């Protein structure tokens, strides 16, 4: 059983081989893609793909391009999220955002390039092992669904709309739709993809999906909590500025105690989904504990 | 043998079924994607995919999601090209550009959504006919290569860079690299995908590729010529503003007569590539004639 740090280090080692060399074709694009993709980060999503494949006794090496593709998609979404037309952020992980370094146009293209490269990377594995084409097609389809116009991009679109024009009266429903799309989809669909790669049964896929969804909500809820806990420390308040601004977060909808209850609830759901895997789910159980520990 | 108008009309009829309904989930994203994808246009690229599949006695219906996906990718590239951070265009085909209607953030997401949806659409065909997974994987891989970080996106990145920072001393080489990436890749790789769908031989794929490359160059050269011929009519000049501004176009690199020579050259190349298909290549021969007639 590997740890998150071990999987993340594997991903870190392998990511560069799927990227065009910085100097190839004299393209700023290549520098811009590398700048954001190789900027570190937890490598949580690709590590979860690899861990799920190993938990189901699939082939780690075969899963590597799929895991790295998931990280490319995550990175493209951050580059586009940071753009002036979206969140207009100037810093990400302590470094200037992509468009601050390469300009807005090249940052848009770096995102587009990484999304395309994610698919190229997964499809290339099909050339290596054409006899596995059916499994690959369905794994790629899962990831495309999570990333796509009914998944992550839909969540971002809703989030942007609510931020600009206010959220609907049913704020709880609105919050769940945004967080399911923006956050949970890129956990649950990649996990389903891992299940397909490892030839998991329908029940296995459903359990992975249920875990991924609950983990995504847990991830977002603890993130939202951390934001206010951090701010509370700084300015001695119990609610952060997001809660006051009416921005749609777990805190603004459920309050701090309500969000803590949500964390317990999603944790229980995530653990229940893992039961069928017994001791082999240790990696995923540990992740859940890590999340809860963030806000203790 | 169908005509371009007939194929385009087929594409027009079928495109909506691959899109989420406008009202689905109350998403502005769906309106924004539909606004640009269903805005008409020549439907040239998807028609060429369908025509190539029929020329090679492949299955038209099977090719439909691939053809429509190619149009989605073309449309996403136009939405992103028009953004303030790129070309900053306010009109496209006589209508306000996507970001003028939906705002910059939603336009970025509409492009992202269409690119993802293109892959989702192609991958979904794999669920319908899993026994064809290997052919589909390799067809999708061709399209991803054409659209991706070594294809269309690379061409856009170079174009943007040269526009902002000036082009290199070897302007001819720079022009070919930009036009190959920006324009030719989204003809030649979709044609190769059609060849894979129809189980074409390596020689067939190479002929389609050669035709697609030459056609792309012809398309771009006649576009550049049309720009100056149109302007010359308007203002009585023989060279357009692009030529004067030093922007990298066929006209600014080769002049009007040189560009006409290039048109003849690429036409001859395109026709030579079609020889092996004999009379069955009529659709593609006609396209070449149409291009040349634009600038007669």
Task: Describe this structure as you would to a colleague.
2 copies of one chain form a homodimer. Chain A is mostly helical and 296 residues long. The first copy, chain A, has helices at 4-14, 28-37, 44-55, 60-82, 98-102, 104-128, 133-147, 152-165, 171-197, 202-235, 241-245, 250-274, 282-294; strands at 91-92, 95-96. In chain A, strands 1-2 form a two-stranded antiparallel ribbon. The longest helix of chain A is centred in the last third of the chain and has 34 residues, at 202-235. Chain A is globular. In chain A, 55% of the residues are buried. Chains A, B: This is Farnesyl diphosphate synthase. Chains A, B: Belongs to the FPP/GGPP synthase family. Chains A, B: It holds the Pfam family polyprenyl_synt.
State the helicity of chain A in percent bands.
over 70%
Total helical elements of chain A = 13
Shape of chain A: globular
Estimated structural class of chain A: mainly alpha
The N- to C-terminal Cα distance of chain A equals 26 Å
The fraction of residues assigned to DSSP E strands of chain A is under 5%
Question: What kind of sheet is the major sheet of chain A?
Answer: 2 strands, antiparallel
Q: Radius of gyration of chain A over alpha carbons?
A: 19 Å
Query: Which residues of chain A sit in consecutive blocks of at least 5 with pLDDT less than 50?
Result: 236-240
If you average the pLDDT of chain A, what whole number results?
93
Oligomer state equals: homodimer
Number of strands of chain A: 2
Give the strand line-up of the largest sheet of chain A: 1-2
Q: Please name the two chains that share the biggest interface, counting residues whose Cβ lies under 8 Å from a Cβ on the partner chain.
A: A-B, 59 and 58 residues
Task: Give the H and E element order of chain A.
Answer: HHHHEEHHHHHHHHH
Family (chains A, B): Belongs to the FPP/GGPP synthase family.
Catalytic activity (chains A, B): isopentenyl diphosphate + (2E)-geranyl diphosphate = (2E,6E)-farnesyl diphosphate + diphosphate
EC number (chains A, B): 2.5.1.10
Cofactor (chains A, B): Mg(2+)
